Amino acid sequence: MLSFDCHSAIENYLSGRTSILPFTGNLVNIHFITTYLPHESDNPHAGLKTAVRYRLANRNTCIILLSFLPMYEIRKHDTFGILNLTSAYFLQLPFENEVFVETLVQCTTPLIIPDQEWKQFSTNACKTLLKEELGKIRHGGQLDIGNKIIYPLLASCFAYKHDPSIYGPLIEQQLLNLQQFVNRQDLKNLFVLTDKANDLPDVDLVKISTFLSTLKNLADKSEINHAAVEQLIIKINNFSLIYNELISQ
């Protein structure tokens, strides 16, 4: 099966070229990705990161990267080493039919990435991508969860003791805001990456996984009363310890 992260014109071109080949029935799953994806980013090499994310989610699919630039130029930006990974191929556009066939022939046998190679790649990729995503939630970042959500929620919890009638509804609204925050696509990227990283025995990844599970637990909605607010304060303080440790790294 063929799939694509390409401009529609290139996708049509590739589909047309493969449809006339006699051995396409022997092809394993192949995903074509252009290094330039204008619909996703102005970065001319954004497709490399797309390839990394795709590989993490699809260990057993061959990837063919395409670019109008030569491979040596693309390698300068391949900080994850995706081009060095088993079953990742490269084609410079435009290409001759013979070159295309030679590349596809390599995709007619089942894909097996050696465990050690996969562990090294996936650990490095998950750590790098997760730290990049976590940078968004630092103080002053576009997803500054501390100043925008956690600290105001904690202040409301302390104030609740003095005036439950005012701060009870405010806490409920702030918890709703936290739930909406957790459901943002930006955060879902973190959760997806963490799911992939759970089987990787790495200290940094364990810390990030603990942070996200604590965040999810904090966002659980419960009835607002004195006992619940006291528990919420404890949960916020526990979360803050993990959060402050992560953002200080």
What does this structure look like?
The chain has 249 residues and is α/β, with parallel strands linked by helices. The protein has helices at residues 8-19, 46-57, 71-75, 97-105, 115-134, 145-160, 164-182, 185-197, 203-218, 226-247; strands spanning 2-5, 30-34, 62-67, 88-92. It has a four-stranded parallel β-sheet, sandwiched between helices. Strand 2 (30-34), helix 2 and strand 3 (62-67) form a beta-alpha-beta unit. The protein is elongated.
Mean pLDDT across the residues is 84
Low-confidence stretches: none
Count, helices: 10
Query: Within the largest sheet, what's the order of strands?
Result: 1-2-3-4
Sheet with the most strands?
A: 4 strands, parallel
Please report the distance between the alpha carbons of the first and last residues. 42 Å
Q: C-alpha Rg, in Å?
A: 23 Å
Structural class: alpha/beta
SSE arrangement, N to C: EHEHEHEHHHHHHH
Residues in helix, %: 55-70%
Strand content: 5-15%
Number of E-type strands: 4
Given the C-alpha coordinates, what overall shape results? Answer: elongated
